Amino acid sequence: MVNKITWTQHLAIGIFVVLGTALAIYDFHLTGQAIKTLQASVPLVIEDQREPILPIPLTLVLDPAKVTLGEKLYHDPRLSGDDTVSCASCHDLAKGGTDQLPLSRGIGGRLGGINSPTTFNSGFNFVQFWDGRARTLEEQAAGPIHNPSEMGSSWPEVIAKLGADPFFRQFFAASYPDGITAVNITDAIGTFEKSLITPNSPFDRYLRGENEAIGPAAREGYRLFKEFGCVACHQGVNIGGNMFQTVGVLENYFAHRPITKADRGRYNVTGRAWNMHQFKVPTLRNIALTFPYLHDGSVATLRGVLEVMWSSQLGRKLQEDEAKLIIEFLKTLTGEYRGEPL
Hints:
By secondary structure, the protein is mostly helical. The protein folds into two domains: about 5-55 and about 200-340, Cytochrome Bc1 Complex, Chain D, domain 2 (Orthogonal Bundle), CATH 1.10.760; about 65-195, Cytochrome c-like domain (Cytochrome Bc1 Complex, Chain D, domain 2), CATH 1.10.760. Helices cover about 35% and strands about 5% of the residues. The chain has twelve helices and four strands. The protein has helices at about 5-30, 65-75, 85-90, 135-145, 155-165, 165-175, 180-195, 200-205, 215-225, 265-270, 300-315, 320-330; strands spanning about 245, 280, 335, 340. The strands form two sheets. The protein has a two-stranded antiparallel ribbon with strand order 1-2. Strands 3-4 form a two-stranded antiparallel sheet. Strand 3 and strand 4 form a beta hairpin.
């Protein structure tokens, strides 16, 4: 039998929701950010406006030439210093937009300090990177190119390589009057990444009125997902990605190991004490494919990450029947890319 939430747990969850939301709003008031999502210009068909989760739009209007160019750049290892690492090395579309490793490896096999988030549906995130240091996908695209542990290159080097390729000279000239520049490279990559939407998951079809698109166990799992307050952080089109939240609200997640720089989260960007251990809430879209989980890639399974969330964020012990039902719900969040199931 599924245990009921006590009034004290309801209160704790409520405080956690209000505090986390207030800090996220204040944080972006200070930095001048506006929470924007791609769905703003795309009509959505939603059967029940009361649901906290929205279906991904089936299509987006993007420049097809820039999408094609950005896709070529995304998969081109010449963006790295030694021509061995591309964007797809850490964000493999065949692996849910990740590399399915705890920590990614860059040029020369250098080990990174944080888990690679998925690029699928990343255009719906309000900021990029776990710590939110990039405001846009275009800004984010420049980061790994210059990171010595990731791609270890520079704009002069990248532009020279691409400029020597007749294909890229032609494609850039067709889309950008000023040709191959740093701004245009990141714009093309960002446009392609905006196209990486995965609509039509069983759960999205359920939201659009196909009641039998998910089974009774998944429907009960979704009810529990809402009852336990998971939707406080995981809601909207991307089921996350639209706020920061502290890891370890009710139990210290970091108590039993040394703190790394990456563990500081948003604090590394702002230097404000209340941002310590805060991270952009990850999307739950395609969650069954984007293992291992959390910013440190320390949890290998859905059951494992639920246990962490129940203890550190909800202050309770995960029950076996709860876990099975919620995992059934999470499995329905896997969508399609270009009309094919992931």
